[in-house]
Each structure stands twice: as structure tokens, then as C-alpha cells.
Amino acid sequence: MSEFRVMSFNLRYPAMDGHPVAERLPIAAELIRRAHPHLIGTQEGELDQLETLISLLPEEYIWLGEGHSGGNSGEFTAVILDSTRFEVEAVDISWLSEQPDTVASESWGVSHARTLTTVDVRDLTSDRQLRVLNTHLDHKSERARLESGQIMADTIAEAAHPCVVTGDFNVATGSPVYDFF
């Protein structure tokens, strides 16, 4: 597979902390334009943030994902990709819980529902397949992070091709969560 650039970006939900989204998104878009990544895993973006961000980027960028509360509701773990480099073959949204196919399901003491966005793409440069996984692990429950890591490891094992994992794991380097990868 040819070389490509990957970025993980926590967009931060629209908090009222003195740094409003209207100020942050143009800065984020400029950073993305300069780095020109081919794949971006985002965390904490809500629908309006993602739509605004995409409108500020070159037209080849598209985004895929679903809110953690289902559909367009809640925070997304969206994948943004350069459609001139990658062709989307499949998209799957699963919930990091004991019922991964149940929308907004929660397990293991999470603070709120968590999603795993899995996108299978074809590299248009090399004609090879790639699986992209993106998530945002719980910030409170270590058990939830470990169980979620196992779900991600299983999703990677199911792939018949290379995988890229992005996300906000809410842990320091050396955490047992990284042992799954």
C-alpha cells in the first residue's frame, strides 16, 4: 500500500469554556488543510460541527458516522476521508457495549453511549483494501475501556486486510488498552 497520512482529532463538543466552536472550527480546518491527511478519525463532534468543518475543507473530504445516541443525535466518532484517495466500500457503526447492534446501548459503567465507526475503503492509488476504526473510549470506567479494546481487537481480527485505528482512548501511554493493538 502506498504511503498515506492519518490524523486523529478530538473536535471537543460545543462547550461553553471561553473557546466557542465558531472560533475553533476555522482553526481546525486550517490545520487539516495544511497537513492534508487522507484519513481523519474525529471524536466529540456533533452534527453541526462536522457539517461546518466539512464546508471549510476542500471538496474531496467527506465524512461518515452516526451520533452515539443514534442517527444525528449526540457526539460522533466520525471518519473524514479524502475521496480522491480512498473509495468507501462499507461503513458500520457499533456501540461499545454488550449489545453492539443496539443503538445507544451502554454497559460496564460508561458515562454515556460510546460508538465504534468502522469504514472499509479501497486505496485508489494501490487498489488495496484498508479497514479504518475510530472511537472515543470512556473517560471514567477502566472496565469499559478494556471491554471496548477487546471489541476493537475482534473487529480488527475480522478484517482480511490492514487496519488503521484512531481515537481518543482517554488513557496514558502504556495503558493495558494499547495491548489490544
Describe the structure.
There is one protein chain. This protein has 181 residues and is of the alpha/beta class. It contains three helices and eight strands, in the order βαβαβββββαβ. The strands form two sheets. Strands 1-2-4-3 form a four-stranded mixed sheet, with no helix packed on it. The chain has a four-stranded mixed sheet with strand order 5-6-7-8, covered by helices on one side. Helix 1 packs across helix 2. The chain is globular and about 40 Å long. The relative contact order is 0.16. The model has no long low-confidence stretch (mean pLDDT 96).
Q: Helix and strand layout, with pairings?
A:
Elements: E1 6-10, H1 21-35, E2 39-43, H2 47-56, E3 61-64, E4 79-82, E5 86-95, E6 115-123, E7 129-136, H3 142-158, E8 163-168
Parallel strand pairs: 1-2, 7-8
Antiparallel strand pairs: 2-4, 3-4, 5-6, 6-7
Helix pairs in contact: 1-2
